[in-house]
Design brief:
8 helices; 6-stranded antiparallel β-sheet; elongated; 31% strand; 25% helix; 5-stranded antiparallel β-sheet; alpha+beta; single chain; 330 residues
Amino acid sequence: MQRCIYCLRNLGAGAFNTEHVLSTAFGTFLDAPVLRCVCQECNQFFGDKLEVQFSRGSFEGLLRYRSGVKKLARGPVNLRYVELTIPEGDWTGVRMKLVNDGTELRVSLIPQVGFHDPETGRWIHHTLDEIAAGVLDARPHLKKTEIRIYARSRQEHETILLRLSEAHVNFRASGTFDPPASLLAGEDIPVEVKFAVNRGIRRCIAKYAFNYLAFVCGDLFVLESDFDAARNFIRFDSAPPRPLVVETFAPILQTDSPRCRQTNGHLLTLEWWADLLVGQVSLFNYLTYRVTLASGFSGPIWRPIHDGVHFNIENRSVRRLTPISTRLLP
């Protein structure tokens, strides 16, 4: 019998399979660290409920395409938790989407309507699906008589007019205005990227840190009750006594800065910060997530943990990080 490090059930050896410390959705690596102390049921749950949403919908999902870790499929790229907008000019705030044109990723206009907000003086943009879902009912202060229609074709324009009519939005056409010249010419245009980090993403990130702790220290160590808050948050979405995952743009590596990074690979680290055991996770070495795995330790054997690993996406190798003082280097 063996005990699963997440659900804590004692199960036969046949109930366990291989769990990658870091999901293969972010690349396959030679000698990648794996666990054999996660039961098949927990493994399946993570894959279906956490991994898919995170890898396909998050900002890190966008970086999978940009880095080449995920191959491009022709057509639109749907990222649930990422929003692209034009940052300046008459088209400020206009929403865009990513599309693979067969050779590379490009941004493309989403059919939408801009409504003037007299309270802020800004234009608020809503897609046709949002209008059909009744978003305007929740924002009665938006001026329905002063709108802007954004469409790529006459057919899309007619569809927008129909949807506005169904939503009882009445207006009078008063003219047109031109899109950015670079958009008309098919050139590269600057876009602003906004992304959300929600509870599901934090649970998935915490799993990577917890997995790495089990890999470094062994499954018996992480079965201690000191890790129950983190374990139950990851597996059962139990509310922790305090936030366990915090996001920051502060780099992990010693010689990195917020604007200059020496690798675009993935980083996982573990170390004690006073009485807190903290795991850090940075996919593509961009955004850093700090995960509090334990607050203090009451188990029989305390360990001086200071460890890290670098997943090199250029040559698909995995290498331990070298501790230098209290920081880490590749």
